[in-house]
Amino acid sequence: MTTSAKTNIVDPVKLDRLAEVAVKIGLQLQAGQDLLITAPLAALPLVRRITEHAYRAGAGLVTSFYADEEATLMRYRHAPAESFDHAATWLFEGMAKAFSANTARLAIAGDNPMLLSAEDPEKVARANRATSKAYQPALEKIAGFDVNWNIVSYPNPSWAKQVFPDLSEDAAVAKLADAIFAASRVDIDDPVTAWREHNAVLAKRREWLNGLNFASLHFKGPGTDLIVGLADEHRWQGGASTAKNGITCNPNIPTEEVFTTPHALRVDGHVSSTKPLSHQGTLIEDISVRFEGGRIVEAKASRGEEVFNKVLNTDDGARRLGEVALVPHSSPISASGLLFFNTLFDENAASHIALGQCYSKCFVNGDRLSPEEVAARGGNKSLIHIDWMIGSGEIDVDGVNADGSTVPVMRRGEWA
User: Closest Cα to residue 271, out of 216, 379, 385, 352?
Assistant: First the structure.
């Protein structure tokens, strides 16, 4: 079926609302500001709606880059072996240059999460490593929150069939579209107002945590007894926040989390995943790791363990944490009962941690800190940033003060 025919399966009114929210809430795109969009080819209908809303908002120039799943598979099946140690460095350097010139960034997620599941894992790992290194100049601009950026999603048919394997492709796309619209708060008449109200709730949570300024968090429950030390002069973020260019935006739509930076050297104990991690075509299940002095010293998984260990060996920072996030078990995405195979959604179903790169914005005056100053405060550096879920209705979280006293933060997965 053609892309235009597929559009009829997706509610055009809600799709237009998602585009409007992406531009007005996700980016708060400014008049005269350029916009760079990346998207899977299947997301063309959403790209077009976002492009129109962007120009109506006064965008200077909207430039879109598309990924094609079939072309990606052709590389793995026909490219010479040495190809997998190369990446389009010129493209990412160009993106970094664009961000330095205040170009806004919008990514549309929706790739088939299992696209590379049948391909040579060594080739996948090499390609990922090469791309991660090449992407670093652009990633530093995003992780450093230099510009306003946003991620939204589109129900790519191949993704929809992973989430709803028992449905026909058309039915799966329609059902995934409904789930995306509900989670993104565009299934109501005034989503812009709904997002402003939701941002206010998240702001109260982060302000409470910032006021208490815990030294660490203690996660405890089945398979988990973990102390996550928090970075020196850390700040909690969540919902709308202000980029270094002065624009307040919502980087993730949907979002239910408040998050901050752990101290790279102060994480100890063991923790088990509560949901599978979908990573580059592999479903990694029942992750169990042990930390000593901030570093993962032991890692197991019932499925995908080899891939998980390759991730941990990406670089020196891959075995340390760059983020800890709190999400109530009753979040709309958790309540849906769906596994989206997409971190943008699955991370908002449960409290989680992320391996790898930290966000400099999660520090007091983070917009003015050098990379060396971020590191001195305990911020981690890595080529990767991979979230995985550790929260559930059975996990308690305490805030631990510098004197060792504790304050209940979550009980059985809900805010205390």
Answer: 352
Distance, CA of 303 to CA of 276 (rounded, Å): 9
Q: How many CB atoms lie within 10 A of CB 118?
A: 10
Look up tokens 């409470």; give the residue: 208
* Angstrom distances, CA of residue 240 to CA of 28, 143, 148, 164, 254: 10, 15, 10, 31, 12
Report how far residue 67's alpha carbon sits from residue 131's, in angstroms, rounded to the nearest whole number.
Answer: 14
DSSP-derived secondary structure for 25-93: III-PPTT--EEEEEEGGGHHHHHHHHHHHHHTT-S-EEEEEE-HHHHHHHHHHS-GGGGG---HHHHH
**What is the rounded CA–CA span in Å between residue 300 and residue 191?**
42
Give the pair of three-digit tokens for residue 110: 């929706």
Confidence band, pLDDT 50/70/90 cuts, at residue 143: confident
**Helix axes of 121-143 and 305-312: crossing angle, nearest 10 degrees:** 40
Q: Are 387 and 343 spatial neighbours (Cβ–Cβ below 8 Å)?
A: yes
Alpha carbon separation from 350 to 98, 154, 274, 394, 414 (Å, rounded): 34, 22, 8, 11, 10
Q: Does residue 225 sit in helix, strand or coil? A: strand
Asked whether the beta carbons of 249 and 319 are under 8 A apart, the reply is no
Place of tokens 């237009």: 16
pLDDT digits (tens, 9 = 90+) for 68-87: 999 999 999 999 999 999 99
- The answer to whether the beta carbons of residues 252 and 151 sit under 8 Å apart is yes
pLDDT tens by residue, 352-393: 999 999 988 899 998 889 999 999 999 999 989 999 999 999
Helix (H) or strand (E) holding 210: helix 191-212
Contact indicator for 225, 395 with CB cutoff of 8 Å: no
Query: Does the global pTM surpass 0.85?
Result: yes
| Pairing of the two strands 282-284 and 277-279 | antiparallel
